[in-house]
Amino acid sequence: MTKAGYERLEAELRRLKNEERPAVIQAIAEARAHGDLSENAEYHAAKERQGWIESQIIELEDKYSRAQVIDVSKMNGSADSAVKFGATVTLADEDTEEEKSWQIVGDYEADVREGKISISSPIARALIGKTEGDVVEVAAPGGARSYEIVRVEYK
């Protein structure tokens, strides 16, 4: 995972533990004060929320403890370097000539809207090990697409 992804994971874990957990505990206490718990919808909703928060904390703690942080800025960025984790790759669609840039990141931090694709995605798997000028074919839901690697950067 990249350093930015690790910091985002750490912030989300801290938010769940320091904000969400205390808030749901307070909501449970308030719902209990209303009396009969068997027919108390607020109580049951708060308990369900508490279960979800606790499962999220467990999942994030597991990811956090097993994370291997890679500082992309210290990686080799020469023009002839092969695509690897952390690379920002500019691709040109062979059919439309449209260019797009994607950074290859860990599964947890992937977000297509931010231009970050998962290392386990079909396009990232096709790019790994390739260099500038190579043409890759990617199996997409709408059929196979061909892309030329225009630029490989590590930033």
SSE layout:
Elements: H1 3-32, H2 41-66, E1 88-93, E2 99-105, E3 116-118, H3 122-127, E4 135-140, E5 143-153
Helix pairs in contact: 1-2
Structure description:
- The chain is of the alpha+beta class and 155 residues long.
- The chain has two domains: 3-66, Helix Hairpins (Orthogonal Bundle); 72-153, Transcription elongation factor, GreA/GreB, C-terminal domain (Chitinase A, domain 3).
- Helices cover 40% and strands 21% of the residues.
- It has three helices and five strands.
- It has helices at residues 3-32, 41-66, 122-127, and strands at 88-93, 99-105, 116-118, 135-140, 143-153.
- It has a five-stranded mixed sheet with strand order 3-2-1-5-4.
- The longest helix has 30 residues, at 3-32.
- The mean pLDDT is 87.
> Treating each run of at least 4 consecutive H or I residues as one helix, how many helices?
3
Average pLDDT for all residues: 87
The CATH architecture of the largest domain: Roll
Instruction: Briefly note the CATH topology name of the largest domain.
Output: Chitinase A, domain 3
InterPro entries: GreA/GreB_C_sf, TF_GreA/GreB_CS, Tscrpt_elong_fac_GreA, Tscrpt_elong_fac_GreA/B, Tscrpt_elong_fac_GreA/B_C, Tscrpt_elong_fac_GreA/B_fam, Tscrpt_elong_fac_GreA/B_N, Tscrpt_elong_fac_GreA/B_N_sf
Family: Belongs to the GreA/GreB family.
GO molecular function, one term: translation elongation factor activity
Pfam family, one: GreA_GreB
